[in-house]
Amino acid sequence: MSKLKQYKMFINGEWVDSESKKTFETLNPENNEPWAVVPEASAKDVNNAVNAAQKAFEGDWPKLLPKERAKFLRLIGQQLRDNAEMLGEIETIDTGKIIRETKKQAIYIADYYDYYAGLADKVEGTVLPIDKPNIQAITTRIPIGVIAAIIPWNSQMFLTAVKLAPALAMGNTIIIKASEIAPTPLLEFAKIIDKAGLPAGVVNIIYGRGRTLATPIMETGKVDVLALIGNSKSANSIQANHPNKNRLRLVLGLEAKNPAIVLPDADLDLAIDECIAGTLSFNGQRCTALKVLYVHKDIIDEFNRRFSLRVDALKFGNPWEPGVKLTPLPEKDKPAYIQELIDDAKNLGAKIINEKGGQITENYIFPAVLYPVKKSMRVFKEEQFGPVIPILSFTNIAEPLDDMAESNYGQQVSIFGKDVKKLASLIDTLVNLVCRVNLNSSCQRGPDVYPFTGRKDSAFSTLSVHDALRSFSIRTFVASKDNDYNNAIINELLDKKASNFISTDYIL
Length: 508
Known about the structure:
By secondary structure, this protein is an alpha/beta fold. The chain contains 16 helices and 25 strands. The protein folds into two domains: 13-254 and 461-471, Aldehyde Dehydrogenase, Chain A, domain 1, CATH 3.40.605; 258-446, 3-Layer(aba) Sandwich (Aldehyde Dehydrogenase, Chain A, domain 2), CATH 3.40.309.10.
């Protein structure tokens, strides 16, 4: 075995090992063999990271003019471009994500930081109009404080960017906890943060198991925002550890059970194309994946036949190979979990309708298309987050709508059809059940100017590019009596640029 790559954590501008000296080996899903060693943070490391972030927030960082913070964001973006190929390769090695996708995403993420650099000084302040005589107020948005960002493994670089870029643009400080699965992309990203030269403590990147570290982070009571992408049970458990929950703002992207509804007049070629992409892009390991398909009884047989053939035609292989659509799973226990879902469904009457479905190896299980699926089956109720596709038939549109209304989730839905009158009625109902309705297209996150949120247990708050600035800031203002004495002071503050808050850079 070749020598394992060694990593350190980044706390208060320094590269450190775990205080406990504990380490963890991360596996290459291609062969399930270790390829890198990462430090596993202790409670003391957590305290050091939180204290560093708090100290940095009490320093000059949040007081800088936005255009000054923007310089750092652009440096991060440039470093991402310079290292895109390496970062793409690291993410592919650690997650099994297809290399053409990881390299492309590294470039896109660079643009993301540049975009927020451009937005940073567009957060306009105003002189508030009021109906009271002799008083005036100048207001703008300012940073909220210390942010704890808990990042999932499936797209760490991007899912860090959607939090870190707006948080830094607004002047916050942050502790980033990399996932226990495939953590190396973020530990490589820490090198970029270091090269960008941000003040010590503004960004801290630690590694360890989810709740093991999230609990002491919250218990410090020094975190102002919990930004988590994960599941609702974890979110509930983590926030419960904060001693002052009334002070804690939540920005949560949680689990989903996004359905597709295929109406009898749907273009089957289009619907199948989109359902293939929606269910099996990155093996279905996305919160935005299609997790259950409802197909009208009039077309169910033809849909199942053609859909199954298409699934079986997908190429499985290593993420470096051209034309590959299905790649090894980075979670060691995932094939066994998917098999449990399949066995449960078969015991309750479902069948695997594609020839290759359920073929299992050490690091993969071939996508199983299951039909007919019942509501009592685990695969209907659980977010599978992997390659298994449950299909239900329906005769009345009320059937999938009732299921969605009863569901604990409400992120997105895809509908396939062309009858405008029927679609209009369906859209008007669905927008009150989920936060995004996709017409003749699969569920997805982007473009990132769109809201990204959910109802019920699927999300809280939104991280679209504009909304995120509000998520990581609060409004504050300076008020004064409208008289010659105060006006002279304000004019002098403006003329001399003595204050970064009372500034024409804000008051536009």
